Amino acid sequence: MTKRLLLLVLPLWLFAAQVKAEYFTITRYDIAVTFAADGSADFVETIEVKFTEPRHGIFRFIPYHDVINGEAVDRLIKDIGVDGFKFAKSKEENYNLLIKIGSADTYVEGTQVYRINYHVVNPLNFFEDGHTEFYWDLLGTKWPVEIENVSFKLNFPEQVNLTNDKVRAFTGASGSATQDIILQIRPRGVDGKVTRKLMPEEGMTVACYFDKGTFVEMSSWSFFLEKHGLLLAPFFFIFGGILARYIARNKRQTIMTEYFPPEGISPAVAGGFVDHSVDNNDVLCLIPHLANQGYLRLEAKEGGFLRKSEITFFKLKEAGNELFEFEKQFFNALFATGSQVELGDLKDKFHTHMSGVQASVKAWIMQQGWYEPDQKAMGCMTGLAGLAALGWGAFAVFAQQNLDGIALMATGLLLFYFASRFNKRSPDGNKTYQKLEGFRQFVKKAEKPVIERLMKEDPLYYDKTMPFALAFGYLKQWNHQFEGLLTQPPSWYGSPGMHGAYLGQSWNTFSESFPSEINSIGSAFTSAPSSSGSGGGGGGGFSGGGSGGGGGGSW
């Protein structure tokens, strides 16, 4: 009986000891966010702390790395300040910006008010359908103490017109959909107040939805310059010159027209090697490639008015030894749950397999000896540029230009890395590239009379070449070349009919619909569970699911 009582009491005692060890509570936490017309925002956090024992101060950490719709997003947080207190900032592990407030030589006690200011360059999430959202943990779930009063105020620029259905707010532990909060929504602002005391590791998240065109997404180049500063410009010219010279050297060869892809080359490899990048199309092309070999069938059923087609994959036989390992990897992942798979069932689940197959294709290419290192003159030039970047970066840090200095030093290290890693194609690589590039150029510029002649020589010419056109990014225009030459889609493509056979679709219909269906497949294959909860006009959401947030403690 005593042991059981200890097992029940011990966790409670440990929890109480942990809370007590924080030596403070938060009596008031106010957040004010003011947005500019370009979508950037100024944050002001006012934190009223009551210390129970003398401490140096508090620390605040803010996550700056997110994954939105399967894509990594870095939030740029700058212009950090704390009114009336000394502070130090640093970037810690797990993508956290740490703001340590106070002095090691000074203790504070009783009630202290900390006012933290910072600017976020890119706090908004942009989506393919054009809408934008602000989905942010205004109060993160990583504070280990009680917070008695929480309020916030959001102010938006003139182009914003908020309505009640475009704003949501959530409170509680991470993942909670509780809404213990009062909202006052204005056309260009939101005021909110939490209606209860928040317990340790409880937070508050707000989600605001904006119509298409309200904000314009910052370009990648503008964000890069904003993040690293114009001091990096000379090194980009150097880096670009080095890269351009290597590309020029690799392309300095005669390209002959090729009417067929090289034998023994998968379309995934063709697409990845010809442009030095294994992208989504280089994996999606495996669908028609494997279908042509009798491994699968694809069925597209019309979804009705304003609805997308419903796509189903059917497994016809097991993966054979004639397939490359990355082709088997893709095939087995596609049919991991059974021999009939709905595209909708793969959404938010297949993205990890996509990246895995891409990595396998890239590894296969590198194993073929198609590249060779060049560590002579260009390596020396790159190394010297790296040395200059390191020196310039150290000087910038010394001059208190910390962000630019660190970025320059990182660029120097990157240039040192490339000094030994810059490659050019080997003789074997050039031979393969010549054939692939010759075929790619033919696919891009082919004329119908030539294709008509090739079709007479091989009636399955389209079936064999279409996966390569997809990998090269020319699927739609390649399909148009076969109008009038084909009357039906490939045998592996169909719509529901008797006994599952193809029913009622012409070649022209397939030619127009299949590229769109491939796009739908690509979107489903690469989608990941979004941190977004408010997209589409309010919607759902949960506490702790947005950007920002984090927490803090005392020291």
Walk me through the structure.
The structure is a single chain. The protein is an alpha+beta fold and 555 residues long. It has 16 helices and 24 strands. It has helices at 2-20, 220-228, 233-251, 267-274, 280-284, 286-292, 325-334, 343-346, 351-366, 377-398, 402-421, 427-445, 448-457, 461-472, 475-480, 507-526, and strands at 24-35, 41-55, 58-63, 65-68, 71-74, 77-82, 87-92, 96-101, 108-120, 125-126, 132-139, 150-155, 167-172, 181-186, 189-194, 203-210, 296-301, 310-315, 340-342, 371-373, 423-425, 493-494, 547-548, 551-554. The strands form 6 sheets. It has a 7-stranded mixed sheet with strand order 6-9-2-1-12-15-14, with no helix packed on it. Strands 10, 11, 13, 16 and 23 form a 5-stranded mixed sheet that branches. Helix 3 (233-251) runs antiparallel to helix 10, helix 4 (267-274) packs across helix 9 and helix 10 (377-398) runs antiparallel to helix 11. The longest helix is centred in the last third of the chain and has 22 residues, at 377-398. It is elongated and about 90 Å long.
